[in-house]
Amino acid sequence: MATLKRNYWFLDLKTFFGTIDHKQIGLLYMMFASINLVFAGYLALVMRTELFNPGLDGVATPAEWGGLFTVHGTVMIFFVIMAMGAGFGNYLVPKMIGAKDLYWPRWNNIAFWMLVPAAIFVWTSMPPIGWTAYPPNSEIANPAIDRWIIGLIIAGVSSVIGALNFLLTIIHLRRPGLTWKKLDLFTWAIVFTSLIQFAATPVITIALVMLFFSRTFGAPFFDTGFGSNPLFWQHVFWSYSHPAVYIMILPAMGLTSMLISRFSQTEIFGKTTMILSMAAITLLGFIVWGHHNFTASPNSPPGWFFTFTTFLIAIPSGVKTFNWLLTMYKGKIVIDIPLLFGLSFVLGFVLGGVTGVMVNTIPLDLVFHDTYFVVGHFHFIIIGGAISALSGAIYFLYPDIFGRMYNRTIAYLHLGFWVVGYILTFGGMNVLGALGMPRRYVDYPEFLPNHDQLILWNRITTIGAYLQAFAFTLFAYNIVYSAFKGPVVSPDEAYNIAIPRMWATDEDAAIMEEAH
Amino acid sequence: MKHTKRICSIFSGFISLVGVPSVSAESNRYRETFDQIFMIQLVLSVIILLGVIILGILLLRKYTANQKISPKEVKGLHNLKLEIAWTLVATLIVIYLFAISMGPTEDFASANNRTGDVTIIVTAQRFSWNFEFEGVANSSFNSYNTSSGQLNPLVLYNNQSYILKVTALEGDVIHSFFVPELGFKVDAVPGHFNYVFLDDLPVGNYSVTCAEFCGAGHYNMPALIMVLEG
Ligand SMILES: [Cu+2]
Ligand SMILES: [Cu+2]
Predict the structure, then answer these.
(1) Among A118, A408, B71, B133, which one is most buried in terms of CB atoms within 10 A?
(2) Cβ pairs A/B, distance under 8 A
(3) Cβ contact, residue pair B111, A307, below 8 Å
(4) Helix axes A372-379 and A337-360, enclosed angle (nearest 10)
């Protein structure tokens, strides 16, 4: 059975640990991300269950609460979304550019396997500090915090190696005649993602090392008494972490462009503008971090600068949104699962976008900052947006990966529960924030304003979270079941659409090899 | 004008439906600005959202292929005029939103250059607030009695102006002084003062809560501001 052999290569331990094949490493990244998603999603459900009723229900205690949201956030960012992006980059980029593999196949393997100890360090830490780890709260004596720091430093090193590898691959291994202008939008997205990773990750690594020194040796990097200030951390941290949010969204944007244009059977509308928009987002992303600090030191002057630069990001984001929609214009649209997930990305992106404009407006931020409004905003973008696009891309590539086809009915059910689920969850969170409920609360005590409405909207949010969990169960079932029992198809017949040749054939790869 | 008013009233109806307290004469300046700007952005957001959804559905319906296999690929489209047009529209919207937020931002931010009739030092600690009237001996008190749970309100008067100097105890962690119904929060950072100017406060009770994660008791750091007729 060809599909059996092809689908179970990872049962051979030597291949599993030693593979330097970009497709297999890509799949390893995706498996790793899926396993992390299951557990990080479980933490989210624990938190949502505790919040379903007012009062401390004992699902999670106040002492445990900090560890729950810290590890949920850290794992989702570094080991789910970023790992999925790296997975698709590995799987697709060499195909797209006609290379046999990445520039450094061996380092590719090492970068992936570094993530495993990193994740183990983080999973066994559960420190009550938030993924933002603001001192002095992150300077309290607690060995869990040290484990968390070490985990993130390892993940950061892996991320830099991966980024450099992608950049070198795309610069040096394109097939002859594939100019930058002809490069597809997903590969462009990986270019910008890697530039951000390469430029910004060292910053957070240095910050984490400083935090480690301050914890272990009492180095006063963030202490007022020694002429510094706890706010110093926030600036260093966000000058990495705002660009880092684009590490999470850019690959999903590239995948969305791919899905919408494939299934509209047209090329993307305004491709040059799309590339320029990604470039603008990448550059602007580095000079907006202060929007996280409006309420930290409201009397300091540069607030208007950061609010202005952040508003500017709305322009390329809006341009991209309309270009995605207009890609369908005069197309020959085939309505199918991957396209609808691509459109679900656009919906999540717009919902997260308009609420993002709101949190960036300082008079609104004075209320919204550090409330559920912010949580709703970024989950719309990263879960409603990025996870939608990643799910759509998994469906799209499914026949290519497994040589079989999934069940379309279950996939449509997945889509329905998913979209309704994320709108309820994150829309509910936006309302909670507007009502004044701060984030990172294990309970909403009665002294909070609008307490009755807090109960209602927390329940809606929790129900939405369970709908999302159900959608994911359908997704997981469909993927695993169809890998054994799905009808055998070739990628070409799976969607029955005239796909302009998306990636290079083996012939191209052979020519490429000769050229080197 | 009449039209705008109507749209606004529809939206404030919608907002009170979802539970956000609507604009009332009783709010203070920060909350008033918040309500106004929020309303403007909400209307804009709903228009953009509906625009995107309607455009998406129309395009889907109009260009869905009848037969699945198309003979050859369609050439990529672009329309420079259209793209320039919506870039300009987006830019104008963004500049407008930036412009209307600048005055209130400046108003809130300049508190450190203002003087009030009374200055109050607010010191956060795990997990309560301490209030002290600057220059008044023995005026310091805690926001609540940890053993009985009784709140000790901070009493203010509607005919006086106040400067809050917000900080956290030396050796403690960062907290955030959040008064949802007065439309602001400022972080309480050890070794650092943040200033808030308050005047024309409407008579009433206002809950304070902590908005920066500070440990296991973060969710339960209440204080009460009581504004009385002066
Ligand atoms: Cu940011
Ligand atoms: Cu606190």
Answers:
(1) A118
(2) 292
(3) no
(4) 150
Amino acid at A96: M
pLDDT on residue B146: 73
Q: Which of A47, A259, A299 to mutate to test the interface with B (most CBs of B within 10 A)?
A: A299
Query: Number of H helices and number of E strands within chain A?
Result: 19, 0
User: Structure pTM?
Assistant: 0.93
Question: Which of these, A408, A483, A398, A396, lies nearest to A1 by C-alpha position?
Answer: A483
Instruction: Find which of B79, B80, B83, B129 to mutate to test the A interface (most A CBs within 10 Å of its CB).
Output: B83
Q: What is each CA distance from A131 to A78, A229, A488, B35, B90, in whole angstroms? A: 10, 20, 43, 31, 33
SS (H, E, C) A304-356: HHHHHHHHHHHHHHHHHHHHHHHCCCCCCECCCHHHHHHHHHHHHHHHHHHHH
- H or E, element range at A91: helix A82-97
Q: Does A493 touch chain B (CB under 8 A)?
A: no
Spell out the domain ranges in chain B: 2-109, 114-228
**DSSP E strand stretches across A371-483:** none
For the segment B12-69, what is each residue's pLDDT rounded down to a tens digit?
Answer: 444 444 444 444 446 789 999 999 999 999 999 999 999 999 999 999 999 887 655 5
Tokens 């009848």 sit at which residue? B66
B45: contact with A, CB 8 A cutoff: yes
Q: Which of A265, A323, A444 sits opposite B73 (nearest CB)?
A: A265
**A272 with B187: Cβ contact below 8 A:** no
Question: pLDDT digits over A59-107, tens only?
Answer: 999 999 999 999 999 999 999 999 999 999 999 999 889 899 999 999 9
Chain A CB within 8 Å of residue B72 CB: yes
Q: What is the pLDDT of residues A203-241, one digit of tens each?
A: 999 999 999 999 988 888 888 777 788 999 999 999 989
CA B219 to chain centre: 19
DSSP string, A182-196: GS-HHHHHHHHHHHH
**CA atoms A387, A391, A396, A400: torsion sign:** positive
Chain A residues whose CB is inside 8 A of the B33 CB are 363
Q: How far apart are CA B220 and CA B161, in angstroms?
A: 28
DSSP state of A385: I
- Residues of B numbered 167-196 whose beta carbons fall under 8 angstroms of chain A's beta carbons: which are they? 170-174, 176, 178, 180-181, 183-187, 189-192, 194-196
A142: its two tokens:
């607690």
Q: Which two tokens stand for residue A235?
A: 């600036």
Class of domain B114-228: mainly beta
